[in-house]
């Protein structure tokens, strides 16, 4: 994989054998993507393009260029390998810095040009955002939530400091806005348990508390992403007017219809459940639990297919950092889970690019190959619309900074 950095002085013509622009149904052949002063200036058929002597050319014949991929749900502070070791590292600054740098690097090498971090108690994702911004470490653009808004004593003590009442919710969000978080993450329910099919950890907030959180975030111009499972939890979240449902295991068709009508994003994170059975720790789960994991995965895949049919704004997110979900590396797993659910590749790729960019608040600059957009692109061998697996190893990644 070759990484190409683009800066505001870069003038570059990419001679793409094939281009998928983030929106189209198909690829276009023999296209020149002109980058001028670090932005996409033109996208034209090769025969009409005029070569300029002050623009460098890169020949990408035989490759397909597409918008860089976006993971709308990660935790940079966790590595997906060992949860306890990740937490221990938070108290060891050099080790945690190295781990964050590795997570950023792995994300970029797998073609991710932007990621949204769902939070960690130390707010390390804010640090990572800064490192990418200043060029200290190469990585995708980080859309940071800092710490999650959780309820003290409930699930998620590693995600945020915990709140107790509306006043402390407002106080936490004000502090996060002060640190200039891009979005606010709220944990509305617990995790899916594997003891009994459909069982989910208890709700964290009542309607009034959740409304307080959403109002405070929106008043500060921050979209709200919520960790939520169970129909009751999703009802609560939708009533409060959240912007995106994360996970959303066991949501209902009626809720998907509401989300489609309102334009609420859904980030279903199949990998967060399914990948547990891909790790060496799979045998830690008794057969009964493994069965529940599989059934939970299948029901989520069915709902993704339904969401696609209903026109819900689906967005790809992996929950990288969760057990068995590795930064960058596991991204393709998520795409393939959706594909096996029956969602067409082109729709999956839109969920991974143009719709994901919008969910991250970057809709005007990322997710499409289009004049005025940032040239954060990948080049892969083969046609991803025919075979998503060609995304496993991008030949080139173009990133600006
Ligand atoms: Zn998460």
What does this structure look like?
The chain has about 400 residues and is α/β, with parallel strands linked by helices. The protein contains twelve helices and 15 strands. The longest helix is centred in the C-terminal third of the chain and has 24 residues, at about 285-310. The chain is globular and about 65 Å long.
Strand content: 15-25%
Largest sheet: 7 strands, mixed
Number of strands: 15
**How large is the radius of gyration?**
21 Å
Q: How many angstroms separate the termini?
A: 19 Å
The global form is: globular
Small-molecule binders here are: zinc ion
Superfamily (CATH H level) name of the largest domain = Metal-dependent hydrolases
CATH topology of the largest domain: TIM Barrel
CATH class of the largest domain: Alpha Beta
Low-confidence stretches: none
Overall residue-averaged pLDDT value: 96
Number of domains: 2
Question: How much helix, percentage-wise, in residues?
Answer: 25-40%
| Helix count, DSSP H or I runs of 4 or more residues | 12
Structural class: alpha/beta
Sheet with most strands: strand arrangement: 1-15-14-5-2-3-4
CATH architectural name of the largest domain: Alpha-Beta Barrel
Please trace the helix and strand order, writing H or E for each element: EEEEEEHHEHEHEHEHEHEHHEHHHEE
């Amino acid at each position: 994989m070759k990484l190409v950095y683009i800066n505001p002085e870069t003038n570059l013509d990419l001679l793409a054998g094939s281009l998928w622009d983030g929106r189209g149904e198909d690829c276009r052949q023999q296209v020149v993507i002109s980058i001028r002063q670090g932005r996409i200036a033109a996208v034209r058929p090769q025969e009409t393009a005029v070569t300029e002597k002050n623009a460098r050319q890169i020949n990408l014949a035989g490759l397909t260029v597409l918008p860089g991929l976006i993971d709308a749900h990660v935790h940079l502070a966790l590595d997906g390998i060992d949860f306890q070791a990740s937490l221990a590292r938070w108290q060891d600054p050099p080790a945690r810095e190295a781990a964050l740098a590795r997570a950023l690097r792995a994300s970029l090498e797998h073609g991710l040009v932007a990621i949204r971090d769902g939070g960690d108690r130390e707010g390390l994702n804010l640090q990572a955002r800064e490192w990418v911004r200043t060029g200290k470490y190469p990585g995708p653009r980080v859309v940071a939530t800092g710490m999650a808004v959780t309820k003290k004593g409930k699930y998620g003590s590693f995600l945020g400091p915990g709140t107790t009442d509306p006043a402390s919710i407002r106080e936490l969000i004000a502090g996060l806005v002060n640190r200039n978080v891009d979005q606010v993450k709220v944990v509305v329910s617990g995790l899916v348990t594997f003891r009994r099919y459909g069982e989910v950890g208890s709700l964290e907030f009542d309607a009034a508390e959740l409304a307080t959180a959403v109002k405070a975030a929106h008043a500060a111009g921050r979209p709200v992403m919520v960790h939520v499972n169970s129909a009751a939890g999703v009802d609560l979240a939708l009533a409060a007017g959240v912007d995106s449902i994360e996970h959303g295991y066991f949501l209902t068709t009626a809720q998907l219809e509401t989300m489609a009508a309102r334009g609420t994003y859904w980030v279903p994170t199949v990998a967060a459940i399914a990948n547990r059975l891909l790790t060496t720790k799979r045998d830690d789960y008794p057969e009964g639990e493994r069965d529940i994991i599989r059934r939970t995965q299948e029901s989520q895949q069915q709902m993704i297919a339904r969401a696609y049919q209903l026109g819900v704004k689906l967005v790809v997110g992996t929950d990288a950092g969760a057990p068995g979900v590795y930064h960058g590396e596991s991204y393709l797993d998520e795409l393939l889970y959706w594909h096996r659910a029956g969602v067409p590749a082109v729709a999956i790729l839109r969920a991974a690019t143009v719709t994901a960019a919008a969910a991250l608040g970057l809709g005007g600059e990322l997710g499409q190959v289009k004049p005025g957009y940032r040239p954060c692109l990948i080049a892969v061998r083969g046609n991803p619309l025919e075979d998503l697996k060609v995304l496993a190893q991008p030949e080139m990644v173009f990133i600006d900074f």
